[in-house]
Amino acid sequence: MAKEPVRVLVTGAAGQIGYALVPMVARGIMLGLDQPVILHMLDIPPAAEALNGVKMELVDAAFPLLKGVVATTDVVEACTGVNIAVMVGGFPRKEGMERKDVMSKNVSIYKSQASALEQHAAANCKVLVVANPANTNALILKEFAPSIPEKNITCLTRLDHNRALGQISERLKVQVSDVKNAIIWGNHSSSQYPDVNHATVKTPAGERPVRELVANDEWLNGEFIATVQQRGAAIIKARKLSSALSAASSACDHIRDWVLGTPEGTWVSMGVYSDGSYNVPAGLIYSFPVTCRNGEWTIVQGLSINEFSRKKLDATADELTEEKALAYSCIS
Amino acid sequence: MESMEYEYIQLLQKILVVSVSLYLFRKIIKHMASFMNVEKEPLKVLVTGAAGQIGYALVPMIARGEMLGPDQPVILHMLDIEPAMEALNGVKMELIDAAFPLLKGVVATTNAVEACEDVNIAIMVGGFPRKEGMERKDVMSKNVSIYKAQASALEKHAAPNCKVLVVANPANTNALILKEFAPSIPEKNISCLTRLDHNRALGQISERLNVDVSYVKNVIIWGNHSSTQYPDMNHATVITSSGEKSVRELVADDQWLKTEFITTVQQRGAAIIKAQKLSSALSAASAACDHIRDWVLGTPKGTWVSMGVYSDGSYGIPSGLIYSFPVTCEKGEWSIVQGLKIDEFSREKMDATANELIEERSLAHSCLN
C-alpha cells in the first residue's frame, strides 16, 4: 500500500536553488523513491508569476510521486501541515550593503517565518535553513519558534561536506563514494573548518585514513581548507550565478540522511543546536559530525581534536557568537 | 599438403574451443556478479548544450539515476561551445561538489570528438535558438549545419547501438538531419522528444478530472514537436475505483477535448515562457529522462508513451520523417502501437502535422545546397 504523502515546504521557491530543488523532491531524491510528497512553495509577491510557472512545470512533468503542489505568497498557507521545511528564501547581499544591513533584513524574515511555522506546521516538523547567513538565520528561527523542538532546527553544511569529499576524491583519484567521514565544523561561511583528520577512503586493502593516503599535511592544512571554504565564490566566478545544483542536491542529502538514517560507520555534517560538545559554546547553531537514526541526529562524540583543529573550531565559534550578537542588536 | 591442412584445422578448433570457453566463462562471472551485488559497468551519457538551462536541470537528474535507474553508474560527457566553456566548467565543479554516488566521471569539453567518444546515450540539447527578427530559414540553416557536424562525430566515435534523443528545436527536423548524415547509426536509434508534450497532456487531464496524474495513461502526441502537434485523447484511460475508464467518457466534453485542451498542450511552452521569462528547463529535462528510461528499461505493461521516431509508414504517415507516434518499449527497442482507430478529426490533424514536417524537411534540404 502506498505511503501517506509527506508535505515539504520550500521557501524562496521561485529562485535558482528552488528550481533545482523541487524536481529532486518530486522524484523522491529527498525522502525515498517510495515516498509520495506534496510540495508547498512560497515566495514573495514580485515572484508570484514566476512561482506559478514553476508550478505549471511541476504539473507538466507528470511526476508519479507528486501528489499536490501549493504555490503561494501567503506564509500561513505555505506552512500549514508541513512535515519538512527547507528555507531557501532570504535577502541576498547586494553590492554596497553592510553585513548589518543584510543581517537586519534576514532577521526580520526569519522571525516572521518562525512564527508561521510554529503555529501551522505539523508536529515534529524538521527544518533546514539554507539561506545565508544560514547558521544565524536558523538561530533566529529557533528563538522565535520556541515550541519547535530545538533538535528539529538545522542549517545546511552538507554542501561544504560534499565539497570536501569531492576535493579528496579528485586529489586521490578515487571514487567519491569511497571517501567518507569528513567533518565541517562551525559556520557555513569562510570561517568553516573542513577537517579530514578522521576521514577515510575505501581501498582494495581496506579503509585507510585520508591523511595517510594524501601524505601532504601542508596541503590538507592549507590549500584544501581554502578551496572548500571558497568554493562558493569559485562557482560564482565560473557560472556568473551561485551554486544551485549542488546546494539543492546537498539539501536533499541532508534531509534524506536525517529522516532515513546514515549508513553504518558513516557520519555527515549538519548545522545543529550546540549542546556544548567539543567545548563549542551551547546556544549556537554550529556544524558538527552527526549520525542519524530513527529520524534523530546525534553528535559523534570522542573524536580527538588536535591543536590546529582546536584553534579552527574556536575561531568559527567566535564568528558565530559575533553574528548572534549582531542579530540580537537588529531585533532591539 | 594434407598434414598442413590438418594442423590448420586443429588450430582453428583450438581457437574455437578457447573462444567459446572464454565467452561462457564471462557469462558465468557476470551472472554470479549480479548475485553478489557487484556494480554495473558505467554507461556514458552525452549532453550537448550542457552549459545551458536544460543541461543544468538535466545533469543532476542523470547523476542521480533518474534516467537509467538507481543502480546504474554513469559517466557524463558534457559538450558546449567555446563562449560557454567557463560556465560549463562551473557545472563540472558543481557535479563534483555534489558527491553523487553514481557519477563515475565527468568530461566537460568543447571538442565534439572527445564528447562523443564511446557514448551509449546522446541527448542533443544544444542548438541555435531563434532570435527576434530571425526568419525560419535562418534558424533552420544554422541548426542544419550543427546537426550535420554532430551526426558525423557521433557516427564515428559513439559506442555501437548508441541511442540518440534530440531535444533542441526544431527537434524532429534536427533529428532527421542527424539521421541523414549518420547513415551508419541505425535509424531506430534516432529519436526526438515529444514526451514533454505527452506528459503535459497527462497533466492537463489530471487537473481537469482532479485525479492523480499517475492514474492517467495512454495519451498520444502525433507528429511534430511544434504547434501543429496533435494531442489525442481517444485512447487515453484513467484508473478509477471502479476500474479503467476512458478519458473521453470521464471528461464528457468532446468540445473541450478537441479545442481548448489541444491548444493548451500545443502552446504550453509559450505559457511557461510568459510566466517565468525563461523556457521550460525543469519539465523538459524530466521528460528527457522519462523518454530514455522507458526506452532502455521498457514501458510498463498496458502503457504506451510518445516518442518522435523514424516513420515506417504506419497510420498512413509518410515514411522518411521523424514523427511522434505511440510506442511501447521492450529490451531497449521501441515499437509503434498498431491498430488504433483513427477518426476523421484525428486523421486531419495527423496529416496536417505530417505536412508541416514535409515542408520542414524541404526547407532543411534546401539549406544544405
End-to-end CA span of chain A:
52 Å
Most extensive interface, chain pair and sizes? A-B, 49 and 49 residues
Helix vs. strand class of chain A: alpha/beta
Tell me about the largest β-sheet of chain A: 6 strands, parallel
| Strand runs of chain B, count | 14
* Overall radius of gyration of chain B: 23 Å
Residues in β-strands, percent of chain B: 15-25%
- Average the pLDDT over all residues of chain B and give the rounded result: 94
| Assembly form of the protein | heterodimer
What's the rounded overall pLDDT mean of chain A? 96
Q: Unreliable stretches of chain A, pLDDT < 50, 5 or more residues?
A: none
CATH hierarchy class name of the largest domain in chain A:
Alpha Beta
CATH architecture of the largest domain in chain A: Alpha-Beta Complex
Query: What level of helicity do the residues of chain A show?
Result: 40-55%
Looking at the structure, the CATH topology of the largest domain in chain A is: L-2-Hydroxyisocaproate Dehydrogenase, Chain A, domain 2
Query: How are strands sequenced across the largest beta sheet of chain B?
Result: 3-2-1-4-5-6
Strand content of chain A: 15-25%
Q: What is the domain tally of chain A?
A: 2
What structural category characterises the helix and strand content of chain B?
alpha/beta
Family (chain A): Belongs to the LDH/MDH superfamily. MDH type 2 family.
Keywords (chain A): NAD, Oxidoreductase, Tricarboxylic acid cycle
Domain Lactate/malate dehydrogenase N-terminal (chain A): 6-153
Binding site for substrate (chain A): 93, 99, 132, 163
